[in-house]
Amino acid sequence: MGVLKEFKDFAMKGNLVDIAVGFVMGAAFKQVVTSFTGGIVSPLIGLLFNADFKNLKWIIKDGIANDAGNVVGEVAVLYGDFLTNVIDFIIVAFVMFVIVKGINATKKKKEPVPEVPKGPSQEDLLAEIRDLLAKQK
């Protein structure tokens, strides 16, 4: 029973719960960004290439069309899909940067530690004690 209680205590710690919430929100945010990129950014960039941006590819070896109309045996580099994912990454990274920067701006700035009052050094005090002891003898 001790292991289960220890695991429960570990799982319910604030940091782990915060990480789980952040992970779920990040996954949902990625879906929004993917939708934005695929539905808005890719078509606009596709206008430049006069093609569907996500389906851009460099065909290395042509394939053969089968009876169902599918191309079989084609070897191609899908650079449009790769570029779409790079754009997704850049958008997510930028938004995360802005969020972290905003959070850091709202954190309390540490107040400067008050300076130690200036006074005689430890060596000066010890020399003064030595001199006072020498006078008493």
Q: State the fourth-level CATH superfamily.
A: Large-conductance mechanosensitive channel, MscL, domain 1
Poorly predicted regions: none
Global geometry:
elongated
Helix % is 55-70%
Radius of gyration (CA) equals: 33 Å
- Largest pleated sheet: 2 strands, antiparallel
Major sheet strand order: 1-4
Count of all domains: 1
Briefly note the CATH topology name.
Non-ribosomal Peptide Synthetase Peptidyl Carrier Protein, Chain A
User: Termini, distance in Å?
Assistant: 72 Å
Strand content: 5-15%
CATH C-level label: Mainly Alpha
Number of helix segments? 4
Indicate the structural class: mainly alpha
Description:
- The structure is a single chain.
- Helix 2 crosses helix 3 (about 80-105).
- Strand 2 (about 65) and strand 3 form a beta hairpin.
- It contains 4 helices and 4 strands, in the order ααββββαα.
- The termini are far apart.
- The chain is elongated and about 115 Å long.
- With about 140 residues, the protein is mainly α.
- It has helices at about 1-10, 15-50, 80-105, 120-135, and strands spanning about 60, 65, 70, 75.
- The chain has one domain (about 1-105): Large-conductance mechanosensitive channel, MscL, domain 1 (Non-ribosomal Peptide Synthetase Peptidyl Carrier Protein, Chain A, Orthogonal Bundle).
- The model has no long low-confidence stretch (mean pLDDT about 80).
- The strands form 2 sheets. It has a two-stranded antiparallel sheet. Strands 2-3 form a two-stranded antiparallel sheet.
